[in-house]
Amino acid sequence: MVHKFPGTFTVVDGLDGIGKGVALQGIVELLKENGKIIFSLDHYWRSNINHPDFDRNCKTDAYVSLKDFDVIISSEPTYTQVGLAIREEVIAKNGRQYSAKQTAELYSVDRLILYKRVLLPALAAGKHVLQSRSVSTSLVYQSSQTLAPGERAISIEEIMRLEGNRFCLDQGPNLLIIPTIENVEEVMQRLSKRDKKDNAEFESLEFQMKIKPLYESSSLRDIFEDRGAIVKYLDAGISIEDTKRQAVQIYSEIFPHLFS
Questions:
Q1: Cβ–Cβ < 8 Å for 77, 87
Q2: Higher-pLDDT residue of 219, 193
Q3: First CA to last CA across the chain, in angstroms?
Q4: Relative to the CA of 88, which of 34, 206, 225, 258 has its CA 20 to 30 Å away?
């Protein structure tokens, strides 16, 4: 179900390199222009090994109160604790293969901690959350993950039943934006040029072509719409500026009260 808190929760999800960050950047720029104060968890995680504690009021060099901000920007997997292990070990190109089930379980734990520790308290306080990737990623990626010899595939239904995923689907986003593109090879060209290098095993043309239909499928959309979320698609194959424009248009139409 969509969460029941006064804040708003928006997720942008899609292929690697398709422009999730660009879409989020456009929304952030719009919110800043309207006087909103932004807090980036990604920036915080670069110098802190734990999630911030939303409810603390004191300030130290290593701590800021999230109550001072209007908008929280997040991403999955996180860059701390379980999320860091996912990034640096489980999905890294290191010659070691982890099963789809193990990977899905770790993602499920990572997002459960993130939701309980940061996102839900923020939403309960009326803050607005913008996030790159969420449960939708696991439903697409782990159900399509390359299997080791003798490994059994994990179904979307099994992924949904994992404790963290089930919890997060019950506290789902108000809005899910999925950038799409016609030519997946263009996405791979973008990945090869960008400064941000994830070294992730999923960043191959073959895998991205495999998951593209899933992101565009009615079955994925139905999972979220049946829980009350609004699912919107944008064309990320035109230009960076047009990706931003579409994201801003979608966001402002869904949450007009943020700009009155």
A1: yes
A2: 219
A3: 27
A4: 206
